[in-house]
From TrEMBL:
Highest taxon, organism lineage: Bacteria
Region (Disordered): 120-140
Family per record: Belongs to the ATP-dependent AMP-binding enzyme family.
One Gene Ontology biological process: fatty acid metabolic process
NCBIfam families xref list: PRK07787.1
Gene3D superfamilies named in the record: 3.30.300.30, N-terminal domain of ligase-like (3.40.50.12780)
Organism of this sequence: Streptomyces griseicoloratus
Biased composition (Low complexity): 120-135
Residue ranges annotated for the AMP-binding enzyme C-terminal domain, each copy included: 397-473
Ranges where the AMP-dependent synthetase/ligase domain occurs: 12-345
Gene Ontology molecular functions: medium-chain fatty acid-CoA ligase activity
UniProt-recorded name of the protein: Acyl-CoA synthetase
Length: 482
């Protein structure tokens, strides 16, 4: 097994590896602190990590990985029922937490080990674990039942991070800034383990804010990772914030993920800064599948091309591959490669159902592919594929069209049963001005003029805000329930 983090033992000791707020660790200090955690948990099987946005979380996960022990990141905002399910399902031997963190009832039943980020432990022993051994067990959002634990092997972490290094020309000279939570793969795997595998640095904002983004990018950071909600706030702030404009204009790479970035926000950021945000596409179960490349065309509304080592195909409902890359034929994305998870913990039924006979993972995401191979995601199969009047319509492109209307601040699109059409298109709108919300006819004409008449909404519902999860994704099932 090659090392996941060669810079821990071979890198420049005094280089800053991690900075969270005003606390930081050099590579030498990180090696000592993670080494101490590793010695404490070695042989434990699985360990839970109370995943606050803090140095302790990064040190805890690194220590577990050095010891060849699978880490189970816990979302500090999870309810007690969900935490209880995750703990009973994953059966961790102990929980790693920052000193002083107050843990809720279900977690207090575990043996607790406080993480000392200033520990002067021995030099890290050679990393334990083989390529196929579990590195992380990350629980999915559980939109259709209790969360499932995706077992992510060490090879998936290594292959995804190396594929992104190829696509983004990511090196040890890069300094990444982000404010993402550390219980998802975006913030933890890409945002913390990614820089450490390259021998670079990460500056975590602890709490996202445009002032922090401007400060860090103007202070030597080269890359920004964010989710659409963050980039939306950046786009809103740019007109009145010359320091933020300067910061983004000088960044080497701006990356958005975890949900689609509306084209309107792409264009506002590009117009103000001259820099385009690039998007990538991944899932808990697959880590990263595609990305716009740093040396490729940063085309708004696409997630680029498959990463090195990833096989991607689009299939019809009967599972037959869609051969044409015409930018119109909608199919489900299926992927195969070393980036995939190995199983859902304790769920052989769900694991078997997730894979095809030839080893492709059924993502449940619907997409089209442009003639040059770029992938455009149009939505989730369960919530974003609308079958109306004989057409298969992706909600995402209608949402982008709606967001181009000056009277629309936020938009989501769903389908609901219709006796004539099968399903009718419903637009959920947060108006820019609540006193003069745009009406159905105005929005329907707006969409029909940009896309096609059959893609126009038939119903408009106005809201004060759209329901979103911790990563900024719109929770469409909550809209349907409402």
């Amino acid at each position: 097994m090659s090392s996941l983090f060669p810079a821990l033992t071979a890198g420049p000791d005094e280089k800053v590896a991690l900075r969270f707020g005003d606390r930081s660790l050099t590579y030498a200090e990180l090696a000592a602190a993670a080494g101490a955690v590793g010695e404490r948990v070695r042989g434990a099987g699985r360990v839970a990590v109370w995943a606050t946005p803090a140095l302790e979380t990064a040190v805890a996960v690194m220590g577990a990985l050095l010891a060849g022990v699978a880490a189970v990141p816990l979302n500090p905002r999870s309810g007690e029922k969900e935490l209880g399910h995750i703990l009973s399902d994953s059966a961790p031997a102990l929980v790693l937490a920052a000193p002083g963190d107050e843990l809720p009832g279900p977690v207090r039943g575990l043996e607790r080990v406080d993480v000392d980020v200033r520990a002067a432990g021995p030099a890290p022993a050679p990393e334990g674990g083989a390529d196929g051994d579990p590195a992380l067990v990350v629980y999915t959002s559980g939109t259709t039942g209790p969360p499932k634990g995706a077992v992510i092997p060490r090879r998936a972490v290594a292959s995804t991070l190396d594929a992104l290094a190829d696509a983004w020309q990511w090196t040890g000279d890069d300094v990444l800034v982000h404010g993402l939570p550390l219980f998802h793969v975006h913030g933890l795997v890409l945002g913390v383990l990614g820089p450490l595998r390259r021998g670079g640095s990460v500056r975590h904002l602890e709490r996202f804010g445009t002032e922090g983004v401007a400060r860090e990018l103007n202070g030597g950071a080269t890359m920004l990772f964010g989710v659409p909600t963050m980039y939306h706030r950046i786009a809103e702030a740019l007109p009145g914030d010359p320091e933020l404009v300067k910061a983004l204009a000088g960044a080497r790479l701006l990356v958005s993920g975890s949900a689609a970035l509306p084209v309107h926000d792409h264009e506002r950021i590009a117009a103000a800064t001259g820099r385009r945000v690039i998007e990538r596409y991944g899932m808990t179960e697959t880590l990263m599948n595609t990305s716009v490349r740093a040396d490729g065309e940063p085309r708004a509304g696409t997630v680029g091309v498959p990463l090195p080592g990833v096989e991607l195909r689009l299939v019809e409902e009967d599972g037959s591959p869609i051969a044409s890359w015409d930018g119109e034929s909608v199919g489900e994305i299926q992927v195969r490669g070393p980036n995939l998870f190995t199983e859902y913990l304790n769920r052989p039924d769900a694991t078997a159902a997730a894979f095809t006979e030839d080893g492709f993972f059924r993502t449940g995401d619907m997409a089209v592919r442009d003639p040059d191979g770029y992938v455009r995601i149009v939505g989730r199969k369960a919530t974003d594929l609308i079958k109306s009047g004989g057409y298969k319509i992706g909600a995402g492109e209608i949402e982008n069209a709606l967001l181009e209307h000056p009277g629309v601040r936020e938009a989501a699109v769903t389908g609901e049963p219709d006796a004539d059409l099968g399903e009718r298109i419903v637009a959920w709108i947060v108006p820019a001005d609540p006193h003069t919300p745009p009406g159905l006819d105005e929005l329907a004409d707006h969409v029909a003029s940009r896309l096609a008449p059959h893609k126009r909404p038939r119903v408009v519902r106005h809201l004060d805000a759209l329901p979103r999860n911790d990563m900024g994704k719109i929770m469409k099932r909550a809209l349907g329930d409402g």
